[in-house]
Amino acid sequence: MDAHIKFETAPDKVARRITKMRPSAVRLLFAAANRPDIISLAGGMPDVSLLPKSAVRKAAKAALDDQAVTLQYGSTNGLPETAKAFCDIVRDIGIRHKPENVIITTGAQEALDLIGKTFLDPGDICLTEGPTYLGALQAFSAYEPDIRTIPFDDQGMRMDLLEEELERIGKDNPRLKFLYTIPNFQNPGGVTMSPDRRKRLIELSHEYGFIVVEDDPYGRLRYEGGHCLPLRALDESVIYLGTISKMFAAGLRVGWIMATPGVIGKINLAKQGTDLSGSVFDQKMAAAYFTETPWQHTLQKFVKTYDRRRRAMLAALEEYFPPEVTWTHPEGGFFVWVTLPPYVDTGSMLAEALDHGVIYTPGDGFYPDGKQGHNCMRIAFCYESPENINEAIRRLAEVIEDRLELYRAFIAAGALPNAGVAE
Ligand SMILES: Cc1ncc(COP(=O)(O)O)c(C=O)c1O
Questions:
Q1: Given pLDDT bands bounded at 50, 70 and 90, which one contains residue 416?
Q2: Ligand 1 centre and the CA of 407: distance in Å?
Q3: Domain spans of the chain?
Q4: CA dist., res. 24 & res. 159, Å (int)
Q5: What's the 242 CA to ligand 1 centre distance in angstroms?
Q6: Of residues 420, 339, 21, 349, the one with CA closest to residue 151
Q7: What is the value of pTM for the model shown?
Q8: Which of 139, 208, 301, 355 could bond 113 through an S-S bridge, CB–CB 3.0 to 4.6 Å?
Q9: Is 261 helix (H, G, I), strand (E, B) or coil?
Q10: 255 CA: nearest ligand 1 atom
Q11: 243 with 255: CB under 8 angstroms?
Q12: How is 188-205 classified by DSSP, letter by letter?
């Protein structure tokens, strides 16, 4: 019997945390997204074809030219020059932070895992928007917490509902560890937390004794409306996560954590066991890109292009989607969150969408229990051309219309199946 067979016959050897994890729907949809007949609204992939080749080459050359450093092990906190470059980047959005209190991570995704590893024991409570980024749910769930979700509206996380949940949990409850939020152009909701709610959230964090973890991959991709100060700019104890994935290159895998020295020290310990250090080559490329190339100019190119795609999506939704369907109106980022009538299950509808040549991400994966969001979907406007987006929404509207017709017939006959299956 070889090792593989032995493993297959001994599932009881697998750790509990793995049995509790659910695969990311986006990862599963990757194969379909590459089919030429499919228009994908599923993934949140940045359009790296917009990057000027000269800037990428310059950054890569800087990394190659410094090979004594970039091909060697690096320090766990990361290259000081990269940390400095990130501190410089965030200054103009209102954050003042010292490079020595930064830890460079393998994408913001590793930052999420390290936050979980550092703060969560099994059964500890963490709060998030519901729905939220499914990669955060995957990262945190490895540490077996009790994840509680707070709904949002078009002003971001509902503070009244957060307060109700906090009252249930109680003040200074040692099990309550942190609240994770994506205040700008939330993934998957597309909504932005208002300045008043940001202030209130900070007040509540002090009143009830929890850490605020602010994840901000999309903050620079604003297409309308005014800039909102980050939570970290309001309170130095906020843990701020950033990434180069949406501003430069998702393939390089560089993100960062900005926090107080004590927290950075603990996260450093957690990271040592994970990977000793992130890729020094990638970090050097990132530093060179943000110090030696006209990255602000390129960012404007991203902003203009994504804005055109966003407008195409919102216009197509107005034109094609039936009146029973509602959606969010993002001022930036990559995503629109769509809500269908409660009896429509977007998971099972995906097969029909595939037949029509379009895919999206079903809503239930964005909730920790997978029991909510069945009637919702996330659609991304970041990757396809405006023409393709228009066509994708037209196709999707046909699929939805078919489902609604079916259900309208059931309703007319007084026999509605699956009613109340989702919220
Ligand atoms: C909200 C959010 N956080 C973190 C990440 C992970 O980013 P990275 O590519 O830096 O790992 C993503 C990626 O889509 C995201 O949307």
A1: low
A2: 36
A3: 3-50+297-412, 53-292
A4: 28
A5: 9
A6: 339
A7: 0.94
A8: 139
A9: helix
A10: 10
A11: yes
A12: TT-----HHHHHHHHHHH
Structure tokens at 46: 């940045």
CATH of domain 3-50+297-412: 3.90.1150.10
pLDDT digits (tens, 9 = 90+) for 10-46: 667 888 887 777 666 665 676 777 788 899 999 889 9
Q: Report the SS3 class of residue 94.
A: coil
Residue 341 neighbours by CB distance under 10 Å:
18
Q: Name the residue at shortest CA distance from atom 14 of ligand 1.
A: 44
Instruction: List the CATH code of the domain at 53-292.
Output: 3.40.640.10
Distance CA 281, CA 259 (A): 24
Tell the burial category of 245 from Cβ atoms under 10 Å away from its Cβ (0-12, 13-18, 19+). buried
Residue 349, both tokens: 């509808």
Per-residue pLDDT at 6:
57
Name the DSSP class of 71: T
Strand order in the sheet with 335-339: 326-327, 335-339, 376-380, 361-362
AA letter at 144: E
